[in-house]
Amino acid sequence: MVARSSSVLIFLFVFLAISSAFPKNKDKYKPCKHLVLFFHDIIYNGQNAANATSAIVAAPQGSNLTILAPNFHFGNIAVFDDPITLDNNLHSKPIGRAQGMYIYDTKNTFTSWLGFSFSLNSTDYQGTINFIGADPIMIKYRDISVVGGTGDFFMHRGVATIDTDSYEGEVYFRLKVDIKFYECW
Ligand SMILES: *[C@@H]1O[C@H](CO)[C@@H](O)[C@H](O)[C@H]1NC(C)=O
Ligand SMILES: *[C@@H]1O[C@H](CO)[C@@H](O)[C@H](O)[C@H]1NC(C)=O
Ligand SMILES: *[C@@H]1O[C@H](CO)[C@@H](O)[C@H](O)[C@H]1NC(C)=O
What we know:
The protein is mainly beta. It has two helices and nine strands; from the N terminus they run ααβββββββββ.
């Protein structure tokens, strides 16, 4: 009898240990922090050097660094230094910079690969958030990984849902970034 109740206890203990190590999805997928920010990209087009915030730095053979290449821009790499704002207005006071690159890496549709950081410097947020992932531009909502952070975002991880909030030809686009952290410290 004593042996039996202790084995029940051991079972219960093991069960609790395992279930706390693998929380149910419902709990696991509740964000610990949520942030919505916008960033604005003005692509250099040969005439807007003063205002441009991104530059094509690589182009496939036969194309140049002024105009994105034909065929879904495949082979282009652009580097950007874009203002981040709290709302969708390009002229709002920036709270930081979105800096990094996008690579057009798909031959049969518009898809880019993003690798960039948000460097935030405002009264509410100080620190960086680092993003990586495939960006199938033609789809309304795309998820990319939030792989880490520093400062206020020390060791944070999560997923960011991005959508192209505005698009003006090949010269301006604005991305809305809905950041959900699932790991906060
Ligand atoms: C650059 O931005 C300023 C301020 O928004 C604007 O007045 C000007 O027309 C822009 N210049 C170009 C070349 O887009
Ligand atoms: C770049 O390529 C575009 C499209 O082919 C062309 O119209 C433009 O003149 C080229 N610019 C330069 C500086 O070569
Ligand atoms: C952040 O903003 C403050 C105040 O504008 C400025 O003094 C400081 O140099 C900025 N820090 C960075 C890392 O840009």
